[in-house]
Each structure stands twice: as C-alpha cells, then as structure tokens.
Amino acid sequence: MADNQHNGDAVSPNAMLLDQPEEHIVEPNGTESEDVAIINPDSMETDVVLATDNDAMKEIVLPPLAEEPRILEDVVHTWEVQGWRTMNKKERGPIFQAGGYPWRILLFPHGNNVLDQCSIYLEHGFDTNSVPDNWSCCVQFALVLWNPKDPSLMFHHSAHHRFTKEESDWGFTRFLECRKMFNVVWETADRPLVENDAANITAFVRVVEDETGVLWHNFNNYDSKKETGYVGLKNQGATCYLNSLLQSLYFTNAFRKAIYSIPTEHEEDMKNSAYTLQRLFYQLQTSNVAVSTNELTKSFGWETRHIFEQQDVQELSRKLMERMEDKMKGTDLEKALPMMFSGKIKTYISCINVPYESSRVEDFWDVQLNVSGNANLLDSFQDYIQVEKLDGENQYFAGDTYKLQDADKGVIFNSFPDVLHLQLKRFEYDINLDTMMKINDRYEFPEEFDASAYLSKEADRSEPWEYELHGVLVHSGDLNAGHYYAFLKPEKDGWWYKYDDDKVTKATKREVLEENFGGFYKTTGGRPQLNAKKQPIMRPNSAYMLVYIRKSRLDKILCPVTPADAPEHLQKRFEQEHAAREAKRKEREEQHLYLGVKAVTDETFKAHGGVDLTAFDAAVGSEPGSYKQYKLLRTASMADLVNEIAADIGEDPRRVRLWIMVNRQNKTVRPDQPVMDLRPTVEETYSRATAHRDQALRVWVEIADEVDADGAAVWPTYPGLPNGVVVKNDLILLFLKWFDVESQCLRGVGHIYFSKEKKVEDLIPVILKKMNWGEKLPSDEKIMLWEEIKPSMIEGLKVKLTLKAAELQDGDIICFQRTRDEKKYKLGLGAERQGSEETAVDRYEDVRDYYDFLNNKKNVDFHAHPQKCDPKQYPEFSLVLNTKMNYDKLCEKVGEKLNVEPTHLRFYTVNASSNNPRTAVKRGHQSLANILIPAGYGQLNMNQRNDALYFEVLDMSLAELDTKKSIKITWLSEGITKEEQFDVLVPKSGQVEDLIEALVKKAKIPSEEEAGKIRVYETSSHHKWFRDLARDYSVLSINDYTSVIAERMPTEDAAVSDQANFISCFHFHGEPSRAHGIPFRFLVKEGEKFADTKKRLEQRTGIKGKSFEKIKFAVIRRSSFSRPQYLEDDDILWDIATNTDDLLGLDHPDRARTTRNGAGDLFLKG
C-alpha cells in the first residue's frame, strides 16, 4: 500500500483484487476526499453534536453535492461492534435496505493490508451471483465510528460513488490509526474512542437520482450508441474543436439533408470534401462505434501538423460553409445554406434633425458578441446595436445640402437566419500583456429569447422572432491549451446530450447552462470558492459558441433524416466496403485454416534478375521474377497442391514434382529434396521442412523432360523403384545463371542434372548447348564459371576439380559469362579498372562486380523542388543507383538524366510524413547510402525517406553558391493582389541595391530605368509592416524571421520624402488580431475625404470591383487595439490617424489563404 494514501481517500477494497480473494489491495484513485472531522466536546464553542442525532449529523457528513442530484432516500444504519481486537481479518455487518437495494458495512478491524490502520467500507448486500446485470446505484455516504457510551466521541469520513456489479464496495483503507482507538483518551476526553473493545459504526446513506445514467461513471466499457443512440467522433490529435463543430452541423438536420443532396455520384473522390462530409454524416447516422474524421481532414489537404494544432472554430465554420456553398452552385440547393444560416445587417448613420441617412446592408453568417463588460446574451445584443452619437466636433457631414449634422451611428439587424450562430468573444487582445487572453467572466445565456428587439423598423414581423437554444459549444482551458466539446439537443422535445469526442452522454440542463456560464465556482451559499491564496477559483470551461433555432422553423430545421435520405451511390459504396471488410474479417478468422505456398517455376527463375532463385521477402508480383503464390487448406494433401500448381501452369500433374526449399546457414533459400510421397498434408510437409523462416511453404516446381509409356514422369534423381523404395544416385541438381555483359543483366537459364564425379569444365558443353552457342566458342573467347554461394560471396570455380571436390550439392547456383579478352579479365579488379570510375560504376565487366552492384543497388525517386525548381520542366523520374557512389557521381548520373551541368545540381532529403523537402545535402565525399540513411540514423532522421530526393537546378555551381546569401523575396506585380515568390542569390557582401538587380533578373521584370523605382521592405510574422530597407543596407543584416517584400513604388509615393505622411496598412478579418495578407504603406493626403482616399486605395491595392466594395476600412490604434474605428466616406483619414503608430486596417476575409504562412493558417483544399 502506497504511503501517500491519506485518511480521506475513498476507494474500493477490491480495486486490485487478482488471484487471492482474501487479499484486498487498494490504491488511491483520485476521488474527492473530505478532511477528517474530529468532534471534541471540550473544544466546541457551540452545542455538542452527538452521533445519535441523525439530522444534525447528516448536515455535517453529507454536504450538498456539486452536481445537485435529486435525493431519492436517506437511510441511517448502525452496526454495534463487540470484541474488536478478537475479530477476524474481515467482517461484514448486518444487511439493511436503502433505495430498494441491500447494503452492509465491510470492516477490516486490523487494516486492509496496511499497518496500524482500521479499514471501513460500504458495500452492496447482494449475493455474489444475484447482482442484476447492468445494475448501478449512485450513493453519497458517510461512515462514522463512535463510542456508544459517549456519542460525542466520534470520527468520520464521507464520499460518493457509483456502485455497480463490478465496483461493489467503496470506502476508506486508512480510516483511522489503531493506536488512537484503544487505551488512550480520545483527544481531550477522559475515555478512548473504542472502549472495552466495543464501538458503533453508523452508515449515513443517501441514494441520489442518476438522471443521465452517467453520474460518477468511470466510462469503462461505455457504449455511446447503446446508451444514447448516438456515436461520437474520434480525436485525431487536437481535432476536438472540429468534432464539436461537425456534431453541431450534423444535428442541424436540414443542413445534413442539404449535404446529402450535393451531387457527388460522378466525383466519389477522397479529395472531394463534399463527398467525404457526406460519408462522415452517413457513418454518424449508421455506425455503432465512434467515427473517424481522417477522410474529411485529408480532403481538406491537412497534414499531420494541422491535425495537432487547434484552429479557430469560427473561421473553420465559415470556410466549411463557403466550400459547401461552392459545391452547391448550379444545383437546386444553391440558396439552401444562405437561407438557413445567413441574415441581413444594416450599418447606418442617420441624421437626427434632417431626413438624411447613409446606410449599407450586408449578409452575415454569424454574430460576434462581446462577453467582456456584459452579464448576459441580451446585454451583448444591446451592446452590439448600441447607437453612437455624432455631435459637437464629431458632427456628421450630410452632403452639401445639410452640411454638418448631429447623427446616430450604429448597426441594426434587418433579419436573422433560421439557424443563428452566435460567437462569444471569449478570447480578446490584452494590450497590457500584448497577447490574446481568455475571458472567464460569468456570462449567462437563456434557453429561449426574443430577437425582435434588435431588428430594424422595416424588418418583417409576420412571424415571431423567438429563438430556442439548440447547441452550446464549450471550450475548457486557456488560450494555449484546452479542450472543446458540445452540448446539443438533437430533437425538438428530447434530451440534451454531451458530445465529447468519441463519447456521447445524456446531459442535464444544469450541465448545459449553469456549468457553461463561466465565472467562479460557487459554494452552497452562492459565494465564490477560494484557493489557498484566498482567490476565487475560476471555471476553466465556458461556452464560446451558441446555436439557436427560430422556434417557428424548428420542425423545418430539425426535420427527420433517415439513412434512406443519403445518396443511393453512397449507400451502395458503404455496402460494398462493408462486404469487403466482412470478407477480410472472415479471411482473418479462417486464416488459421489455410497455409500459403510460394512456388518457384522455371519461368519465374528465367525472369529473375537478382540473387538466389527469387526474392521471397518481396511482395508477390512486385517484379518479373516474382514467385507464384497459392493458398490451400492445411488439411489438403500434397497431391492436391501438385494438382493446383499443375493446373495453374498448364502441365500434366504427373509431370510435376515439388522440391522443398529451405534456409541454408548462409541465409540463402535453395531446393533441398523432392517430395516423393504426396499423401501427407501440406501442413505436415511444412512442419517437416527444417530451418524455414517463412509463414508459407516454399517449393521449387520441376517439370519432367521424359515420361514412360504410361505417361508417368521419369526423374533423373530420386527415382522410385517398383517396390516403392526411393534411391539416390550421383546426379546433383544445379541452377544456371548467365551474366550478359553487353546488356548488363543477370538472368536465370534453367536447371541441369550433373554427375558429382565429373569435372567443372565438363559443364561448358552443356552450357553451350543450353545457350545455343554452338559446339565451341571462338578461339579468342572463353566461358568463366562462378558459384553463387550467397549474395556477398561469389567464388570462381576451378575447372579441373570435380563437382564433388568443388563441394557442389543439390540446389547450388552456377553463374557464367562469356569473355573475349583473357588479359582484360585477369586485370579484373586491378589498377586499370580502379583508374576508370566510369567502368567501375556504369559498366560491369566482371560478374562479381555486378553482384556487388546488386547488393548495393537502390531505386531512388527524384522530384523537382516545388519552390526552387519547375516540376513541369523537370518531371519526376527514378534511377537504379549504386549506393556506394559519392556525391559527385550522383550529380553526374542525375545531370545526365536531366541534361544539365552536374555541378549545378543541389539535392534535398525528403520528409517521410509530408513528402516535403527537408534540408539541403552538403557536398562532400559521403556515399549515396549515407545521404539516404545518415550515420547515426535515429530520432532526428527517422522522419526521412530513404528512397527519394528532391533536386534543384542552380544558375551557378555549388562552389560559387557558397559565396552567396539566399533571400526569399515576394514580388508584388499588381498592387498587392498578385504575389510571386522568388529565391534570390546575392553576394554576401552585397546590399539591397544588389538584391533588386538580382530580383529583376530572376523575375524577368523590367529594370528600374524602364519601369520605375523598386521599394523593398520587411513585414513581421503578424502580417504587419516592419520597416523599409535602404538601398545601401547590407543583405547579411536582413532579418531571417521577417518576410521581404518588393514592389514598384507608386509615382505619388516617390515624390514625398516625409515618412510621417505615410500610414501602415494591414488586412484583418473581424478582429485586428486575425491579420492576414500583405501589409503595405500608403500616402495620406491632408483634407482628402475618405471617399476619394478609397479610390486611391483601390488603385494602390489592385483589388477591384465587388471584392473592393466588400472591404471595410478602420483606423486601429495601439491603445485600443481590439476596437477598430470604422471609417465613412466623409471622414478624413488625415484628421483621424493623428498618431505615428496608428494603422489603417482593411477588414475582409482572406480568400487566398494557403499554406504559405505555416500550419497556423487554416485552409480547406478539397
């Protein structure tokens, strides 16, 4: 028993009960514990509470529970214990009833495997075999040990627990130290707690209602589908935010139906996000287990890094809506999503004293409401439509007719959507900390509310604008780390459910509302709970998104959806996939009944160009010389196997003989002996085959060249006599391989039988005949013979030795080649060949060198670097290379393939997870093997592919490149709308002037003399302008952590030298902290109305038409960074942006967001 188990820990005595029924081993499990309550009459200032005063004791030992469950029954039961020190190791008290179930006290008077402690528990009183299946009971209880002669002397612990068939008891292993119980006075009293070995134990048992079925549940073996009828979504890493949003959209039934209606029957592609979303919804509807979102996120184009980064839910929701809306264009559902989720909002300035109003009506898909400074949802709405008075010096210019006028400025809603998404601004920028912070203030939201108070006078009020809560999306944690889950109400009059990734449970209204208002935890009296520093303990969880449905449209939005509503092609596809899974499952289940057979035939051997007879470790069919594969019942006979193979290769079974192939000690696999008795089963034959390291039976298939008069095969070796005896003669089975020097390949020729007593040189006539080379070779040619002992050991055969003396045996491989120049052969590995690298690497004159190549060859894929090279100009290709070659030889081979200078190539390793380029390979004497698998291949390099490289074709040699600095620069060719990325090389001693010249050359743009001056500036990672770079600024000093931007300087900018006349501009969406795009500097003109300023901005940015009209402009002051001051046409930017650090913000969605800005940017591709 661990020493850190405190007196108050409530545990089960059976928590670790294994083999010994009487040994109760327990460990603390983190359940809440109560401090020890010692009640001493001498130290009490108030009336003494007696253990016999049940009502008073209940107030002390059964405090209110945080979950506030309904109390079903309170029961008090006392067990009078006699002869304490003479009791058995374990004792049980009498059974009593509570909540309709039997209970009793479980006592270990001398401790449950702990020293000097007594252990007391509460357990159910069912007989071991009579506990009802799925039985559970939620109980709050206290166990009180007291002196029957003086009830004021007592000691107690309290706990609560969900009792089940598996967890039948709960209580306190370290209830009280034994030394304090006997023979010593209890605290300041004059008698011990246990007097005369007698004491009473009272159980105060409060049975509470388990309304949701999961109160205090440990969720072991919990089945969401069985308990709730719904299933959850698996968390891929940090995708709980995605899961909560998807569940919310899924239970917006009209949205689900609309998604089902997107035509995807001709685009069943896993890259199509509409199709994968249909699949996800269909699985949520039909699956019995939690569903994976892998298919959906892959269709978004997300990689592993995106899976492990939490994204903004509002942005994800908007992008997903946009993507689905695009998929619905041109169909009957084109307007379905806007009608469901989009409302109208009007921004206005209305004069008070004259009939003049300037207004603009826009669509909205969600409403962002301030939490800070507002107590509840209705306050936030009131704050949202709050009217700003424009008077005094801030009067509004109402045109030439009305001049300056007092006016009201604000926003008002013209309509709300059927499904109203409310984004609660729980995260805001803290100017003091210069970072985003989570707001944990208490913020209440109602189950129902009337939105008509926030509508304009012109709004259609033919139907009530009453809304009912349908979903609460919750964030638990802080800004940097947290967890997302959702509470949803799938049916109009049904239960609320909590969707927490793969777990779905029923939820009470308290869980939905009160527990997600935020703020501090409350005590029973409503006061804040305090921590050790006397500070209120804040709830980590609070609602950040609310989903309301218009009450008059509830039936329409929550319409029934059945599996039949899913596209027919989708249902068929899942039926096919289910059938395929079932077939695989059945195959796995029956796998033990079958045995695989790998067979080498003469045809496969002749097509094999590598070592041994075939590559048994490779996948079947992966190469021309691959083995044939069969599967038979383990009980099938070898005769059955012969018949199946014969039928497959088109031969008479009587002419087929199988040889068992075994692993030799040198790790080669060769035929050992033929199978002469075909009666045993394939499993028996497999078991008898010695030294096999394969799960399949491996055989070589021999076809007889001769048959007798009856058609029976005549075998050269192991012939069967009439009496059934098999005899062995002096012939051995040899396999022949030919190394063709001209075509630089090795291939199987076939097999022969040869007498062991003959000499090696006698093989040559047989080879000549096999190869159809005539009776003898020309005088200036000869045949060289080697034995392939193992891939790394190829030894020449001495022609004058007998086969027996050469130690040849059944299954050995003889390799031969023709050679014309004996002198050249004798120089084989001599000085002449060492001096010719071309010969050593590219052409092999000696079979031993070719075998060395086979042992070290590797198929390497080459891809053009996606950012540094044009993949269209240089398509991907593969080369079979010797991994012994060095960097320069690798450059030669790849340069030859690409038809480029070898010195102008640079290589990059490949990330195994993303297939993106990693680091550049340094030029040196390292081999290709060391490049692909670096020395010390461990954690740092495990994520590197060992069969692929990226390449870059350089404008200069690598040697010259070392004198340059590479600068990644973005060229803006059309305002700020068109970005082109370039990697520009500048001498390390160069300046920005040199950078501009290099850019002009690299980007092939007109020079400054031809088209105007070029400006270079830096931007921060937060998409803000950082500084202009002077033309004499050193390139070595350019910050590696900023982005470098180049643009053609506008004519009006070039004429102004005072930098105070320029304002820094940046793009954001909704919140200034959500910046995006390319920032820039803009010339501000004194006295210019913003209507005219916008015309210059349109020209400056290059954003045209409706895209520009949708942009809202605001002055952002660092002193109030989170509150933009939006500009009207009659405003004068010069007068408003008076501080040097004021910024001009362009508020619009980032339509062009890609992965360029890193994993933090959210994007959907499919």
From TrEMBL:
Keywords: Hydrolase, Protease, Thiol protease, Ubl conjugation pathway
Source species taxonomy: Eukaryota, Fungi, Dikarya, Ascomycota, Pezizomycotina
Molecular function GO terms recorded: cysteine-type deubiquitinase activity
Name recorded for this polypeptide: ubiquitinyl hydrolase 1
A Pfam short name: UCH
Entries under SUPFAM superfamilies matching the protein: Cysteine proteinases, TRAF domain-like
Catalyzed reaction equations: Thiol-dependent hydrolysis of ester, thioester, amide, peptide and isopeptide bonds formed by the C-terminal Gly of ubiquitin (a 76-residue protein attached to proteins as an intracellular targeting signal)
Residue ranges constituting the USP domain according to the UniProt record: 231-551
Domain of life: Eukaryota
Record-annotated MATH domain positions: 74-205
SMART domains: MATH
Listed GO biological process terms: proteolysis
Enzyme Commission number(s): 3.4.19.12
Family classification: Belongs to the peptidase C19 family.
InterPro entries: MATH/TRAF_dom, Papain-like_cys_pep_sf, Peptidase_C19, Peptidase_C19_UCH, TRAF-like, USP, USP7_ICP0-binding_dom, USP_C
